[in-house]
Amino acid sequence: MKRLKMAVIGVGFWGRNHVRVLDELTDVELIAVCDVNRERAKAVSEKYGLKSYGESLEMYRKEDIDAVTICVWSSRLAEEALKALKYGKHVLVEKPMANSVREAKHVLKMAESKKLKLSVGFIERFNPGVRRVKKAIEDGLLGSIVSATAKRVSKWPQRIGDVGVVKDTAIHDIDIMRFIFNEEPVAVYARAGTLQHEKFEDYVQIMLAFPNNKTAFLEANWLTPYKVRKLTITGSNAIVSLDYITQKMTIETSGQTLTPRYEWEEPLKMELQHFVESILNDREPMVTGMDGVRALEIAEAALKSAAEGCLVKI
């Protein structure tokens, strides 16, 4: 069986998780890690028996690599994705994919021209709980969908330095609403502000208007002293609630409350396994580069709405 030769670009907190998971996948041969912090790259490489680099172009020139995952800061995601694509590597780039929609479209165009796989790290798509919620909707258990509410709050993350809560955090639920409703929002209204960060917003409330009077409400902040990751879908026949972290799902109808039991599964492992299989089997990834562009367009519309205090049509 062919093993995919891979490397990880950026081995901070999240990149190290990528390394750990890829090292566990039987159809992956992890070759190298790359980080501008050479000492950090060296420490990770020594732990897993890999090559280490401080610059990705040097790594591409010296190593035989099929694909990379990119976990650098948001302001450098597009730059690193373009380098990898230029050198013929399949790419999974972490959200928000790029610093702007313009950059994201450039990355997508490059991937299409090179005929390479491009996926974006919307990990909640691979959360088993999310998949079960979507199946409940598709099976008609909820009846007609009316609204969805997502809450993604926690204390200030020290790892964040170049992006606000909308593009770092709320963008997960922006993507999930597109996934759950299986269509694009037509308008957005948002309120955002800064309490602890000098440059970027650290709290936001977003309302997304979808066709046929469906609405999504998103709350995200870095102000809450504990982590909450929850999703609630309201339908004409039932309400389904999901805790993203525990993957516990509850379905409430007028006559009963059901809480099915499932074994917890790691979303990152499922995400990276899917990316690898999409390359080995030459299939389109479930999360495409266009999904990244769309989510970023909505995030930028939300920021514009918050800045101008008005509804923004998408």
Order of helices and strands: EHEHEHEHEHEHEHEEEEEEEHHE
The number of distinct structural domains comes to 2
Identify the strand order in the major beta sheet: 14-13-12-11-7-10-9-8-15
Name given to the CATH architecture of the largest domain: 2-Layer Sandwich
Arithmetic mean pLDDT: 96
Query: What structural class do helix, strand and pairing data support?
Result: alpha/beta
- Which overall shape is indicated by the principal axes computed on the Cα atoms? globular
Helix content: 25-40%
* Contiguous helical run count: 9
- How would you characterize the largest beta sheet? 9 strands, mixed
Distance between the termini: 45 Å
CATH class of the largest domain: Alpha Beta
Rg, rounded, reads 20 Å
Low-confidence stretches: none
As for the CATH topology of the largest domain, it is Dihydrodipicolinate Reductase, domain 2
Q: Please give the number of β-strands.
A: 15
Strand content: 25-35%
CATH superfamily of the largest domain: Dihydrodipicolinate Reductase, domain 2
